[in-house]
Design brief:
Layout: E1 4-7, H1 11-23, E2 27-33, H2 40-44, E3 47-52, H3 63-72, E4 77-79, H4 89-97, E5 101-102, H5 107-114, H6 116-125, H7 141-151, E6 155-159, E7 168-171, H8 174-192, E8 197-201, E9 207-215, E10 221-233, E11 236-242, H9 249-265, E12 270-278, E13 285-291, H10 298-305, H11 309-317, E14 334-341, E15 353-354, E16 357-359, E17 366-370, E18 377-378, E19 385-393, H12 396-409, E20 411-413, H13 419-425, H14 429-433, H15 440-444
Parallel strand pairs: 1-2, 1-4, 2-3, 4-5
Antiparallel strand pairs: 6-7, 6-8, 9-10, 9-12, 10-11, 11-14, 12-13, 14-19, 15-18, 16-20, 17-19
Protein backbone atom coordinates (compact mmCIF):
# COMPACT_ATOMS: atom_id res chain seq x y z
CA UNK A 1 0.00 0.00 0.00
CA UNK A 2 1.02 3.58 -0.61
CA UNK A 3 2.65 4.99 2.54
CA UNK A 4 2.17 8.74 2.09
CA UNK A 5 -0.45 10.67 0.11
CA UNK A 6 -0.92 14.30 -0.84
CA UNK A 7 -4.55 15.31 -1.39
CA UNK A 8 -4.69 17.98 -4.10
CA UNK A 9 -8.15 19.25 -3.26
CA UNK A 10 -10.25 20.90 -0.54
CA UNK A 11 -13.47 20.71 1.45
CA UNK A 12 -15.55 17.57 1.81
CA UNK A 13 -13.69 15.46 -0.75
CA UNK A 14 -10.28 16.23 0.77
CA UNK A 15 -11.66 15.39 4.21
CA UNK A 16 -13.19 12.18 2.88
CA UNK A 17 -9.94 11.03 1.21
CA UNK A 18 -7.94 11.85 4.35
CA UNK A 19 -10.36 9.77 6.44
CA UNK A 20 -9.70 6.66 4.36
CA UNK A 21 -5.97 7.30 4.22
CA UNK A 22 -5.70 7.51 8.00
CA UNK A 23 -7.80 4.36 8.44
CA UNK A 24 -5.32 2.54 6.21
CA UNK A 25 -2.30 3.96 8.01
CA UNK A 26 -1.35 6.14 5.03
CA UNK A 27 0.19 9.48 5.98
CA UNK A 28 -2.00 12.25 4.53
CA UNK A 29 -0.88 15.73 3.52
CA UNK A 30 -3.39 18.48 2.75
CA UNK A 31 -2.79 21.49 0.55
CA UNK A 32 -4.94 24.56 1.12
CA UNK A 33 -5.46 28.14 0.05
CA UNK A 34 -5.09 31.02 2.47
CA UNK A 35 -8.86 31.35 3.00
CA UNK A 36 -9.27 27.62 3.71
CA UNK A 37 -6.71 27.45 6.53
CA UNK A 38 -9.37 26.92 9.23
CA UNK A 39 -11.39 24.19 7.49
CA UNK A 40 -11.59 20.68 9.00
CA UNK A 41 -9.64 18.91 6.26
CA UNK A 42 -6.58 21.01 7.08
CA UNK A 43 -6.69 20.12 10.79
CA UNK A 44 -7.38 16.44 10.15
CA UNK A 45 -4.40 15.89 7.84
CA UNK A 46 -1.08 14.72 9.23
CA UNK A 47 0.52 17.75 7.61
CA UNK A 48 -0.78 20.78 5.72
CA UNK A 49 0.84 23.16 3.26
CA UNK A 50 -0.54 26.50 2.08
CA UNK A 51 -0.21 26.67 -1.71
CA UNK A 52 -1.49 30.16 -2.44
CA UNK A 53 -4.29 32.70 -2.19
CA UNK A 54 -8.02 32.11 -2.65
CA UNK A 55 -7.96 32.22 -6.46
CA UNK A 56 -7.93 28.52 -7.53
CA UNK A 57 -5.53 29.30 -10.38
CA UNK A 58 -3.01 30.40 -7.76
CA UNK A 59 -3.64 27.57 -5.31
CA UNK A 60 -5.61 24.41 -6.09
CA UNK A 61 -4.75 24.59 -9.80
CA UNK A 62 -1.19 25.73 -9.15
CA UNK A 63 0.76 22.74 -10.44
CA UNK A 64 4.17 24.02 -9.34
CA UNK A 65 3.01 24.79 -5.80
CA UNK A 66 1.33 21.41 -5.39
CA UNK A 67 4.35 19.49 -6.67
CA UNK A 68 6.59 21.54 -4.38
CA UNK A 69 4.33 20.62 -1.46
CA UNK A 70 4.58 16.95 -2.41
CA UNK A 71 8.36 17.18 -2.53
CA UNK A 72 8.69 19.03 0.78
CA UNK A 73 6.45 16.56 2.61
CA UNK A 74 7.94 13.51 0.85
CA UNK A 75 4.58 12.37 -0.44
CA UNK A 76 4.65 9.18 -2.46
CA UNK A 77 1.37 9.74 -4.32
CA UNK A 78 -1.15 12.44 -5.26
CA UNK A 79 -4.93 12.04 -5.14
CA UNK A 80 -6.68 14.86 -7.07
CA UNK A 81 -10.25 14.30 -5.82
CA UNK A 82 -12.75 15.83 -8.26
CA UNK A 83 -12.67 19.19 -10.03
CA UNK A 84 -9.55 21.38 -10.12
CA UNK A 85 -6.70 19.27 -11.61
CA UNK A 86 -8.42 15.87 -11.45
CA UNK A 87 -9.03 15.62 -15.21
CA UNK A 88 -5.93 17.49 -16.34
CA UNK A 89 -3.89 15.06 -18.42
CA UNK A 90 -0.82 17.32 -18.41
CA UNK A 91 -0.85 17.40 -14.60
CA UNK A 92 -1.18 13.62 -14.45
CA UNK A 93 1.82 13.24 -16.76
CA UNK A 94 3.83 15.76 -14.72
CA UNK A 95 3.04 13.93 -11.49
CA UNK A 96 4.26 10.63 -12.89
CA UNK A 97 7.29 12.26 -14.54
CA UNK A 98 8.21 13.57 -11.08
CA UNK A 99 8.39 10.00 -9.80
CA UNK A 100 5.09 10.17 -7.92
CA UNK A 101 2.09 7.84 -8.10
CA UNK A 102 -1.00 9.34 -9.72
CA UNK A 103 -4.18 8.07 -8.07
CA UNK A 104 -6.35 8.12 -11.15
CA UNK A 105 -6.54 6.85 -14.73
CA UNK A 106 -3.64 7.20 -17.12
CA UNK A 107 -3.07 10.53 -18.83
CA UNK A 108 -3.89 9.02 -22.23
CA UNK A 109 -7.34 7.94 -21.01
CA UNK A 110 -7.94 11.39 -19.53
CA UNK A 111 -6.97 13.02 -22.84
CA UNK A 112 -9.10 10.62 -24.89
CA UNK A 113 -12.22 11.29 -22.81
CA UNK A 114 -11.58 14.99 -22.24
CA UNK A 115 -12.64 15.93 -25.76
CA UNK A 116 -16.34 15.15 -26.18
CA UNK A 117 -16.13 14.63 -29.94
CA UNK A 118 -13.16 12.29 -29.71
CA UNK A 119 -14.89 10.46 -26.85
CA UNK A 120 -18.09 10.03 -28.90
CA UNK A 121 -16.14 8.62 -31.82
CA UNK A 122 -14.20 6.21 -29.62
CA UNK A 123 -17.36 4.99 -27.94
CA UNK A 124 -19.17 4.49 -31.24
CA UNK A 125 -16.23 2.42 -32.48
CA UNK A 126 -16.42 0.34 -29.28
CA UNK A 127 -20.10 -0.40 -29.82
CA UNK A 128 -21.38 1.97 -27.15
CA UNK A 129 -24.59 3.77 -28.27
CA UNK A 130 -24.12 7.50 -28.98
CA UNK A 131 -26.74 10.12 -29.79
CA UNK A 132 -26.86 11.53 -33.36
CA UNK A 133 -24.27 14.29 -33.59
CA UNK A 134 -21.16 15.65 -35.27
CA UNK A 135 -18.03 13.53 -35.56
CA UNK A 136 -15.83 16.62 -36.00
CA UNK A 137 -15.95 20.10 -34.44
CA UNK A 138 -18.40 22.50 -36.06
CA UNK A 139 -15.70 24.92 -37.21
CA UNK A 140 -18.09 27.76 -38.04
CA UNK A 141 -21.75 28.72 -37.89
CA UNK A 142 -22.43 27.52 -41.45
CA UNK A 143 -21.14 24.05 -40.54
CA UNK A 144 -23.20 24.07 -37.34
CA UNK A 145 -26.38 25.00 -39.21
CA UNK A 146 -25.80 22.26 -41.78
CA UNK A 147 -25.20 19.70 -39.02
CA UNK A 148 -28.37 20.73 -37.20
CA UNK A 149 -30.30 20.33 -40.43
CA UNK A 150 -29.11 16.73 -40.75
CA UNK A 151 -29.58 15.85 -37.07
CA UNK A 152 -32.93 17.59 -36.70
CA UNK A 153 -33.98 20.19 -34.14
CA UNK A 154 -33.83 20.63 -31.22
CA UNK A 155 -30.06 20.28 -30.83
CA UNK A 156 -27.62 20.65 -27.98
CA UNK A 157 -24.64 22.93 -28.57
CA UNK A 158 -21.72 21.73 -26.43
CA UNK A 159 -18.19 22.84 -25.69
CA UNK A 160 -16.11 19.86 -26.85
CA UNK A 161 -13.63 20.40 -24.01
CA UNK A 162 -16.29 21.04 -21.36
CA UNK A 163 -17.59 18.78 -18.63
CA UNK A 164 -19.85 18.61 -15.60
CA UNK A 165 -22.73 20.36 -17.34
CA UNK A 166 -20.66 23.43 -18.27
CA UNK A 167 -20.64 25.03 -21.72
CA UNK A 168 -23.96 23.86 -23.13
CA UNK A 169 -26.95 25.46 -24.84
CA UNK A 170 -30.14 24.29 -26.53
CA UNK A 171 -31.34 25.50 -29.92
CA UNK A 172 -34.84 24.85 -31.30
CA UNK A 173 -34.28 26.50 -34.71
CA UNK A 174 -31.70 28.25 -36.89
CA UNK A 175 -32.08 31.61 -35.14
CA UNK A 176 -31.54 30.08 -31.72
CA UNK A 177 -28.55 28.13 -33.01
CA UNK A 178 -26.91 31.32 -34.26
CA UNK A 179 -27.15 32.77 -30.76
CA UNK A 180 -26.17 29.62 -28.85
CA UNK A 181 -23.26 28.76 -31.14
CA UNK A 182 -21.55 32.10 -30.53
CA UNK A 183 -22.34 31.99 -26.82
CA UNK A 184 -21.01 28.45 -26.25
CA UNK A 185 -17.93 29.04 -28.41
CA UNK A 186 -17.02 32.20 -26.48
CA UNK A 187 -17.60 30.46 -23.14
CA UNK A 188 -15.49 27.47 -24.20
CA UNK A 189 -12.58 29.67 -25.28
CA UNK A 190 -12.73 31.61 -22.03
CA UNK A 191 -13.15 28.64 -19.66
CA UNK A 192 -11.29 25.82 -21.37
CA UNK A 193 -8.98 27.55 -23.82
CA UNK A 194 -10.61 25.54 -26.60
CA UNK A 195 -13.52 26.91 -28.63
CA UNK A 196 -14.39 23.62 -30.35
CA UNK A 197 -18.14 23.03 -30.52
CA UNK A 198 -20.16 19.81 -30.84
CA UNK A 199 -23.72 19.66 -32.21
CA UNK A 200 -25.82 16.79 -30.86
CA UNK A 201 -29.47 15.72 -30.78
CA UNK A 202 -31.29 17.22 -27.79
CA UNK A 203 -33.90 15.17 -25.97
CA UNK A 204 -36.39 17.44 -24.14
CA UNK A 205 -37.40 14.67 -21.73
CA UNK A 206 -34.56 12.42 -20.66
CA UNK A 207 -33.09 10.73 -17.61
CA UNK A 208 -29.44 11.03 -16.61
CA UNK A 209 -28.08 7.64 -15.57
CA UNK A 210 -24.41 6.85 -15.00
CA UNK A 211 -22.33 3.74 -14.30
CA UNK A 212 -19.46 3.55 -11.84
CA UNK A 213 -16.52 1.68 -13.32
CA UNK A 214 -13.24 0.60 -11.79
CA UNK A 215 -10.25 -0.34 -13.90
CA UNK A 216 -8.29 -2.89 -11.87
CA UNK A 217 -4.53 -3.25 -11.64
CA UNK A 218 -4.68 -6.55 -13.57
CA UNK A 219 -6.28 -4.83 -16.59
CA UNK A 220 -9.90 -5.82 -16.05
CA UNK A 221 -12.68 -3.23 -15.96
CA UNK A 222 -15.65 -3.86 -13.68
CA UNK A 223 -18.96 -2.02 -13.36
CA UNK A 224 -20.28 -1.20 -9.88
CA UNK A 225 -23.90 -0.54 -10.73
CA UNK A 226 -25.69 2.57 -11.91
CA UNK A 227 -26.71 5.87 -10.32
CA UNK A 228 -29.74 7.98 -11.19
CA UNK A 229 -28.76 11.68 -11.43
CA UNK A 230 -31.80 13.32 -13.04
CA UNK A 231 -32.62 15.87 -10.31
CA UNK A 232 -30.67 18.79 -11.77
CA UNK A 233 -30.70 22.56 -11.94
CA UNK A 234 -28.80 24.25 -14.79
CA UNK A 235 -27.46 20.81 -15.83
CA UNK A 236 -25.89 20.43 -12.37
CA UNK A 237 -26.86 17.50 -10.15
CA UNK A 238 -28.55 17.96 -6.78
CA UNK A 239 -29.68 14.40 -5.97
CA UNK A 240 -28.33 10.98 -6.86
CA UNK A 241 -29.61 7.52 -6.02
CA UNK A 242 -28.66 3.91 -6.61
CA UNK A 243 -30.06 1.79 -8.07
CA UNK A 244 -32.02 3.83 -10.60
CA UNK A 245 -35.79 3.37 -10.34
CA UNK A 246 -35.93 3.58 -14.15
CA UNK A 247 -33.57 0.70 -14.92
CA UNK A 248 -34.91 -2.84 -15.31
CA UNK A 249 -32.66 -5.88 -14.80
CA UNK A 250 -32.37 -6.43 -18.57
CA UNK A 251 -31.55 -2.76 -19.22
CA UNK A 252 -29.05 -2.80 -16.35
CA UNK A 253 -27.23 -5.71 -17.94
CA UNK A 254 -26.89 -3.79 -21.23
CA UNK A 255 -26.00 -0.53 -19.54
CA UNK A 256 -23.24 -2.02 -17.39
CA UNK A 257 -21.85 -4.03 -20.31
CA UNK A 258 -21.64 -0.84 -22.41
CA UNK A 259 -19.83 0.96 -19.59
CA UNK A 260 -17.28 -1.84 -19.33
CA UNK A 261 -16.71 -1.66 -23.11
CA UNK A 262 -16.21 2.09 -22.76
CA UNK A 263 -13.52 1.57 -20.14
CA UNK A 264 -11.82 -1.20 -22.07
CA UNK A 265 -11.70 1.00 -25.19
CA UNK A 266 -9.26 3.36 -23.46
CA UNK A 267 -7.44 0.79 -21.30
CA UNK A 268 -9.00 2.39 -18.22
CA UNK A 269 -7.44 2.09 -14.76
CA UNK A 270 -8.80 3.36 -11.44
CA UNK A 271 -12.23 4.90 -10.76
CA UNK A 272 -14.33 6.52 -13.47
CA UNK A 273 -17.92 7.14 -14.45
CA UNK A 274 -19.68 6.53 -17.77
CA UNK A 275 -22.59 8.97 -18.04
CA UNK A 276 -25.57 8.16 -20.25
CA UNK A 277 -28.89 9.63 -21.30
CA UNK A 278 -31.88 7.31 -20.95
CA UNK A 279 -35.00 7.98 -23.00
CA UNK A 280 -37.99 7.61 -20.60
CA UNK A 281 -40.38 4.77 -21.32
CA UNK A 282 -37.88 2.96 -23.51
CA UNK A 283 -34.73 0.90 -23.11
CA UNK A 284 -32.84 3.33 -25.36
CA UNK A 285 -29.74 4.99 -23.91
CA UNK A 286 -26.85 7.03 -25.29
CA UNK A 287 -23.30 7.74 -24.13
CA UNK A 288 -22.96 11.28 -22.79
CA UNK A 289 -19.41 11.51 -21.44
CA UNK A 290 -16.88 9.75 -19.25
CA UNK A 291 -15.66 11.42 -16.07
CA UNK A 292 -12.08 10.25 -15.53
CA UNK A 293 -12.06 10.72 -11.75
CA UNK A 294 -13.96 9.98 -8.58
CA UNK A 295 -17.47 11.45 -8.72
CA UNK A 296 -19.13 13.65 -6.12
CA UNK A 297 -21.87 11.03 -5.80
CA UNK A 298 -19.64 8.02 -5.18
CA UNK A 299 -21.05 7.43 -1.63
CA UNK A 300 -24.31 5.95 -2.94
CA UNK A 301 -22.34 3.28 -4.77
CA UNK A 302 -20.22 2.65 -1.68
CA UNK A 303 -23.29 2.07 0.47
CA UNK A 304 -25.04 -0.23 -2.00
CA UNK A 305 -21.91 -2.30 -2.66
CA UNK A 306 -20.35 -2.10 0.81
CA UNK A 307 -17.07 -0.71 -0.54
CA UNK A 308 -14.71 2.19 0.08
CA UNK A 309 -13.96 3.52 -3.41
CA UNK A 310 -11.07 5.68 -2.21
CA UNK A 311 -9.43 2.58 -0.76
CA UNK A 312 -10.00 0.78 -4.05
CA UNK A 313 -8.43 3.72 -5.89
CA UNK A 314 -5.34 3.58 -3.70
CA UNK A 315 -5.07 -0.18 -4.18
CA UNK A 316 -5.26 0.11 -7.97
CA UNK A 317 -2.67 2.90 -7.96
CA UNK A 318 -0.37 0.72 -5.84
CA UNK A 319 -0.82 -2.25 -8.20
CA UNK A 320 -2.80 -4.27 -5.65
CA UNK A 321 -5.87 -6.46 -6.09
CA UNK A 322 -9.24 -5.02 -4.98
CA UNK A 323 -10.77 -5.83 -1.59
CA UNK A 324 -13.70 -7.55 -3.34
CA UNK A 325 -14.16 -10.45 -5.72
CA UNK A 326 -14.84 -8.89 -9.17
CA UNK A 327 -16.77 -12.02 -10.17
CA UNK A 328 -19.12 -11.94 -7.18
CA UNK A 329 -20.41 -8.38 -6.92
CA UNK A 330 -23.73 -8.23 -5.09
CA UNK A 331 -25.41 -4.85 -4.49
CA UNK A 332 -27.96 -4.60 -1.69
CA UNK A 333 -30.51 -1.99 -0.66
CA UNK A 334 -31.01 1.59 -1.81
CA UNK A 335 -29.02 4.78 -1.24
CA UNK A 336 -29.86 8.45 -1.88
CA UNK A 337 -27.50 11.45 -1.79
CA UNK A 338 -28.61 15.06 -1.33
CA UNK A 339 -26.10 17.82 -2.07
CA UNK A 340 -26.34 20.46 0.66
CA UNK A 341 -25.27 23.68 -1.06
CA UNK A 342 -24.85 27.26 0.10
CA UNK A 343 -27.54 28.54 -2.23
CA UNK A 344 -31.11 29.75 -1.95
CA UNK A 345 -33.72 26.98 -2.34
CA UNK A 346 -35.81 28.76 -4.99
CA UNK A 347 -33.49 30.19 -7.64
CA UNK A 348 -30.41 28.22 -6.53
CA UNK A 349 -28.17 31.29 -6.51
CA UNK A 350 -25.04 31.14 -4.30
CA UNK A 351 -25.37 32.51 -0.76
CA UNK A 352 -22.03 32.20 1.06
CA UNK A 353 -21.50 33.33 4.66
CA UNK A 354 -20.43 32.38 8.18
CA UNK A 355 -21.91 29.14 9.53
CA UNK A 356 -23.63 30.06 12.78
CA UNK A 357 -25.32 26.69 13.36
CA UNK A 358 -24.22 23.30 12.04
CA UNK A 359 -25.66 20.14 13.55
CA UNK A 360 -25.53 17.08 11.33
CA UNK A 361 -28.22 14.39 11.49
CA UNK A 362 -27.21 11.00 12.86
CA UNK A 363 -28.75 7.56 13.16
CA UNK A 364 -28.95 4.24 11.39
CA UNK A 365 -28.38 4.48 7.65
CA UNK A 366 -27.38 8.17 7.75
CA UNK A 367 -23.99 9.40 6.50
CA UNK A 368 -22.81 12.99 6.16
CA UNK A 369 -19.68 13.85 4.17
CA UNK A 370 -19.11 17.50 5.09
CA UNK A 371 -16.45 20.06 4.42
CA UNK A 372 -17.40 22.51 7.15
CA UNK A 373 -18.22 22.81 10.85
CA UNK A 374 -19.87 25.53 12.90
CA UNK A 375 -17.89 28.76 12.82
CA UNK A 376 -16.37 28.17 9.38
CA UNK A 377 -16.98 30.60 6.52
CA UNK A 378 -18.32 29.46 3.16
CA UNK A 379 -16.49 31.77 0.75
CA UNK A 380 -17.54 32.75 -2.79
CA UNK A 381 -14.30 31.47 -4.32
CA UNK A 382 -15.27 27.83 -4.75
CA UNK A 383 -18.21 25.52 -5.43
CA UNK A 384 -21.16 26.03 -3.08
CA UNK A 385 -21.21 22.38 -1.91
CA UNK A 386 -21.07 22.25 1.91
CA UNK A 387 -21.96 18.61 2.56
CA UNK A 388 -23.44 15.46 1.12
CA UNK A 389 -26.29 13.95 3.11
CA UNK A 390 -26.50 10.27 2.21
CA UNK A 391 -29.04 7.74 3.45
CA UNK A 392 -29.26 3.98 3.05
CA UNK A 393 -32.09 1.50 3.63
CA UNK A 394 -33.29 -1.88 2.41
CA UNK A 395 -35.84 -0.35 -0.01
CA UNK A 396 -36.33 2.92 -1.89
CA UNK A 397 -39.44 3.97 0.08
CA UNK A 398 -37.56 3.35 3.34
CA UNK A 399 -34.60 5.37 2.06
CA UNK A 400 -36.90 8.29 1.14
CA UNK A 401 -38.49 8.18 4.60
CA UNK A 402 -35.03 8.15 6.19
CA UNK A 403 -33.99 11.10 4.01
CA UNK A 404 -37.04 13.11 5.13
CA UNK A 405 -36.10 12.62 8.78
CA UNK A 406 -32.43 13.41 8.17
CA UNK A 407 -33.25 16.66 6.31
CA UNK A 408 -35.53 17.73 9.15
CA UNK A 409 -32.78 16.97 11.68
CA UNK A 410 -30.05 18.90 9.83
CA UNK A 411 -29.73 22.21 11.72
CA UNK A 412 -27.99 24.77 9.52
CA UNK A 413 -27.95 28.56 9.80
CA UNK A 414 -25.80 31.33 8.38
CA UNK A 415 -25.27 30.80 4.66
CA UNK A 416 -28.30 30.32 2.47
CA UNK A 417 -28.97 26.61 1.98
CA UNK A 418 -31.15 24.29 -0.08
CA UNK A 419 -32.50 22.08 2.72
CA UNK A 420 -36.05 23.51 2.22
CA UNK A 421 -35.89 22.37 -1.41
CA UNK A 422 -35.16 18.80 -0.35
CA UNK A 423 -38.11 18.88 2.06
CA UNK A 424 -40.27 19.77 -0.94
CA UNK A 425 -38.64 17.25 -3.27
CA UNK A 426 -38.98 14.28 -0.93
CA UNK A 427 -42.75 14.80 -0.92
CA UNK A 428 -42.98 15.34 -4.68
CA UNK A 429 -45.15 12.68 -6.31
CA UNK A 430 -42.95 12.27 -9.39
CA UNK A 431 -39.86 11.81 -7.26
CA UNK A 432 -41.42 9.38 -4.81
CA UNK A 433 -42.89 7.38 -7.69
CA UNK A 434 -39.48 7.28 -9.39
CA UNK A 435 -40.91 8.58 -12.69
CA UNK A 436 -39.03 11.90 -12.79
CA UNK A 437 -36.60 13.16 -15.45
CA UNK A 438 -34.13 16.04 -15.82
CA UNK A 439 -36.95 18.61 -16.18
CA UNK A 440 -38.40 17.90 -12.72
CA UNK A 441 -37.03 21.00 -10.99
CA UNK A 442 -38.22 23.22 -13.85
CA UNK A 443 -41.75 21.93 -13.34
CA UNK A 444 -41.48 22.32 -9.56
CA UNK A 445 -40.46 25.94 -9.99
Amino acid sequence: MIESLLVANRGEIARRIIRTARRLGVRATAVHSEVDADLPFVREADEAVCVGPANPAQSYRNTEAILAAAASTRAQAIHPGYGFLSENADFARTVEASGLIWVGPGADAISAMGDKINARNLMAAAGVPVAPGTTEPAADLTTALAAAGEIGYPVMVKAAAGGGGMGMGVAADDDALRTEYDKVRAFAERMFGDGSVLIERYFPRVRHVEVQILGLADGRVVALGERECSVQRRNQKLVEESPSPAVSPKLRERLLAAAVRAGEAVDYRNAGTVECLLVPGTDEFFFLEMNTRLQVEHPVTELVYGLDLVEEQLRVAAGLAPTFDPDALSPRGHAIELRINAEDPKRFLPGPGVIKTWVEPTGEGVRVDSGYVEGNTVTPFYDSLMAKLVVYADTRPEAIARARTAVADFALAGPKNNLPFFTELLDNQEFTAGTYDTTLITRMR
